[in-house]
Write a structure and sequence with these properties.
The protein has 251 residues and is of the alpha+beta class. The protein has nine helices and eight strands.
């Protein structure tokens, strides 16, 4: 990154933050205070991870010399059965335990299924809500939010109650303006669009204005109209060609 300078050689400042220019030409106001706070937090987390690792390593020293952990665990189970003065074969005890566990699992299986369904609904609502409310999608894309979600929705997940974006390599997308912090929805979505090979076909032209960006030669009365079901049944390449040609999609 390079500092952006004005014609007098002075650093350009935006909302009290120095502006940097990335190698790809994008300009970002760099939050120095936020970056320092993030570095401090990450250092604290690293120290906590190191201390936990050292504690775990110390605990494992008690098991030095055991070459077969599974055999040791089985032996401990047999000893526990004997210590409890259970005059039952150790294998029968394990069978009873397995049956008891299965009974509990069967009892709560419907509750677990309902929980998973509610979790899926929550994810759909959080991710879908971000697509529906996105200012970037409304102002910059030539396709509606639901089609954008159909193509890019898999890149977003809900983790710890927040929507997190991933690139096609499975890496989390981080903010350029707040280094060390995860990118917000619109910033992450813009990064995904920048990496999309057909982005020029789904972005509005520079001359488009307003949220609908209709008018001109692209969306007039002579444009071909398809039902949403017909549009979604088309291959993605034909969908893009239809949109680029000024076609419309109706519910």
């Amino acid at each position: 990154m390079k500092l952006k300078l004005d014609e007098n050689g002075h650093v350009v400042v935006q909302e009290g933050k120095p502006v940097y220019v990335h190698d790809d030409g994008k300009e970002v106001a760099f939050d120095v205070a936020g970056t320092v706070a993030t570095i401090t937090r990450l250092n604290g987390e690293a120290k906590s991870h190191r201390e936990r690792a050292e504690a775990a390593e110390q605990s494992l020293k008690a098991f030095e010399g055991i070459s077969d952990p599974s055999a040791a665990i089985k032996a401990l189970g047999i000893v526990q059965n004997l210590d409890a003065k259970k005059l039952v074969d150790a294998g029968e005890v394990e069978k009873v335990k397995a049956e008891a566990i299965k009974a509990v699992e069967d009892k709560y299986a419907p509750i677990v299924a309902e929980r998973d369904q509610l979790q899926a609904s929550l994810v759909a609502e959080m991710v879908g809500g971000n697509f529906a409310r996105s200012k970037f999608i409304a102002e910059q894309l030539a396709i509606p939010a639901d089609l954008a979600q159909a193509r890019f929705g898999d890149a977003f997940k809900v983790e710890n109650g927040a929507v997190v974006a991933y690139d096609k390599s499975g890496n989390k997308l981080y903010s350029r303006s707040n280094p060390g912090e995860l990118a917000g929805f619109d910033e992450a979505f813009q990064i995904l669009i920048d990496q999309y090979p057909y982005r020029d076909q789904i972005l509005k032209s520079s001359g488009a204005t307003g949220g609908g960006a209709s008018g001109g030669s692209g969306g007039g009365a002579g444009s071909k109209s398809l039902s949403r079901a017909a549009f979604e049944a088309m291959p993605s390449g034909q969908q893009m060609a239809h949109i680029k040609a000024g076609g419309s999609v109706t519910d």
